[in-house]
Inverse folding.
């Protein structure tokens, strides 16, 4: 299907889900007349079509367009016209690169980043995420994606009582932060960059706005978030979604300060059953799609429809990100 210079494509890694290809892949119809300015104009002209595609699929890969660097990526994000979301309360270490563009989670290449919805552990989360491949990985480093409602349906079918408890009690997330960032940790963002301040009282005000409690320690702070819903209703699509960071926290929030088993509990404080968490991890892996990155790729995700993760990789790999309200 062609739309004024854009065409929907097929690639081998896509999955057919209920007869629909996931994710959608959009490319230029002809590279001969396609330059960067034309691409940005095309986005503005075709925004209703692209948004409809995002609504029906949950994720779009823009592949084969003339993008080279962070500045180009920033221009594309701005062409879509979504409001920026400040990165307050997120766990991952990130660096601002240009304009609205940040590095993706900078945790070490040998570490897997488990499936999660971006910032699902705080009440203010992005509605859309952009990722951009500035440099392809040497090996690995895919960003697997999975439709959230499928995970909910499979978990509900397999563990109805567990899902009922989640819906009733929600989850509590607990994290211990140092003052500065720890680049060796996948959740190594210190409290100063988490709350964008060096002042403790300002940090407390910003945490309170998120509904987060802070307990100051000798060399850092313990943050307690929740109870917060683990299952949401996606009003736009009229279905329940598995909107949480449960698996990510329980299997991945590990560093010198944090024990992942204590990082997430039911909203009433009772521990989560490990066997069910690991079965959920299997379901996520079974349902996901992992498409190898190509230089210049943009991946646009609807954060309410899709969970994402990161596989380990051999450097080099440079993926940039931008979060939208």
């Amino acid at each position: 299907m062609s739309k004024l210079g854009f065409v929907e494509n097929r690639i081998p890694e896509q999955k057919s889900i209920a007869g629909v290809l996931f994710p959608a892949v959009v490319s230029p119809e002809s590279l001969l007349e396609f330059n960067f300015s034309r691409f940005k104009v095309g986005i503005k002209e075709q925004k209703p079509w692209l948004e409809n595609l995002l609504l029906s699929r949950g994720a779009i890969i823009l592949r084969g367009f003339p993008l080279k660097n962070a500045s180009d990526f920033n221009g594309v994000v701005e062409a879509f016209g979504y409001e920026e979301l400040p990165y307050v309360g997120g766990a991952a270490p990130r660096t601002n690169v240009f304009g609205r563009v940040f590095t993706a989670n900078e945790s070490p290449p040998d570490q897997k980043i488990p499936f999660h919805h971006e910032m699902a552990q705080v009440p203010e989360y992005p509605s859309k995420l952009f990722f951009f491949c500035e440099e392809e990985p040497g090996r690995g480093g895919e960003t697997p994606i999975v439709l959230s409602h499928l995970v909910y349906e499979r978990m509900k079918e397999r563990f109805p009582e567990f899902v009922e408890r989640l819906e009733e009690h929600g989850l509590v997330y607990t994290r211990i932060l140092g003052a500065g960032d720890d680049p060796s940790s996948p959740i190594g963002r210190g409290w100063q960059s988490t709350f964008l301040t060096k002042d403790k009282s300002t940090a407390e005000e910003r945490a309170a706005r998120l509904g987060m409690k802070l307990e100051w320690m000798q060399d850092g702070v313990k943050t307690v978030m929740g109870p917060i819903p683990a299952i949401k209703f996606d009003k736009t699509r009229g279905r329940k979604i598995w909107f949480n960071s449960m698996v990510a926290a329980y299997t991945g929030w590990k560093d010198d300060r944090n024990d992942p088993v204590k990082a997430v509990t039911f909203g009433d404080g009772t521990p989560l059953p490990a066997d069910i968490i690991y079965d959920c991890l299997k379901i996520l892996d079974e349902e996901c799609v992992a498409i190898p990155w190509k230089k210049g790729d943009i991946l646009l995700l609807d954060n309410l429809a899709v969970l994402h993760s990161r596989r380990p990789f051999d450097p080099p790999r440079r993926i940039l990100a931008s979060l939208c309200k």
